[in-house]
Amino acid sequence: FVPSSPYVCPQVAQTKDQSLMPEYHLWGPRDYYKSSFYTENKAHFIGEIGYHGCPNVSSIERFIEPEYVWPYQDNPQWIVHAADPLPQGGAYKYRVKLMADQIGELFGFVPDNIEEFALASQICQAEAKKFFIEMTRLRKWRRTGIIWWNLIDCWPQFSDAVVDYYLGKKLAYWYIKRVQNPVCLMMDEPESWHCRVIMGNDSLEPAEGTYRVRDLTKGTLLEGDYYVAPNENACVGEVRVSRGEHRLFLLEWTVGDKHYGNHYTLGTPPFSFEEYRNWIQAIASLPNGFDPKAVAR
């Protein structure tokens, strides 16, 4: 327990050494979600972390007047609804451009229409928040927990929420729902030409069942039975990879008679936006799926 969040004890405050902080709010530059700011931070508990995602287009059209829906640049209504009460911009004006910068970082370009902009932004947010949760679970027990910000907006805005003000679910909602299963199959980042495949068990009961790892284009790479002790992680295998490749891995597993799914995107930016749009179809078709046609709409 700590007295506040974030908490910095006087001894650490004097050294200004963040690596000594047991709990930390990982906001920072909010650049590429796999940058060193996120992956090399040594906090045991991540007390707050987030990543922006554009609301659904149908929601934007409810709180932005038609002539201001697009473009986003120098748009006073977008600025007001980016948690900034000043039409010409104040402390939070940067949040509009932040979404565009995150899209450009991941895909190498920024779409020129609201439909593709919203989708690209939601992909960035979904992959980021999924990665933050997996990053925490895979580092057990060096990392012990994470609180991501936030679930739902309290007014219509462009924000870190995964459900917008009108209860429209962003893509991140579905990705997070999968990776927060108590028993979850995940892939770690590449090391020595391989990605470890980890079965995480955050429940207080042992878990066992079957698992399968597929490459979208190459078929099944790993499959078999697994057993994981209560509240532990277990490596069930490795997949040979190259960091220069862009690949989608589809992960499936069972716990008793229930089926679950997850995915892992390999590679470094920029990714192909059109290719990822096709990936969504396969990701959505995994167990506990969602309607890919409704994403960002």
Rg (CA only): 20 Å
Helix content: 25-40%
Mean pLDDT: 94
Counting DSSP E segments of at least 2 residues, the number of strands comes to: 10
From the spread of the alpha carbons, the general shape counts as: globular
Range of strand content: 15-25%
**Runs with pLDDT <50, length 5+?**
none
Task: Give a quick rundown of the structure.
By secondary structure, this protein is an alpha+beta fold. It is 28% helix and 25% strand.
What can you see in these coordinates?
By secondary structure, the protein is α+β, with helices and mostly antiparallel strands. The chain is globular. The protein starts with 9 loop residues before the first helix and ends in a 13-residue tail after the last helix.
SSE layout and pairings?
Blueprint: H1 10-15, E1 23-26, H2 36-39, E2 45-50, H3 57-63, H4 76-80, H5 94-107, H6 114-138, E3 145-149, H7 171-179, E4 183-187, E5 194-201, E6 207-215, E7 219-228, E8 232-240, E9 247-255, E10 258-266, H8 273-284
Parallel strand pairs: 1-2, 2-3
Antiparallel strand pairs: 4-5, 5-8, 6-7, 6-9, 9-10
Helix pairs in contact: 5-6, 6-7
Structural descriptors:
single chain; 297 residues; 4-stranded antiparallel sheet; 3-stranded parallel sheet; 8 helices; globular
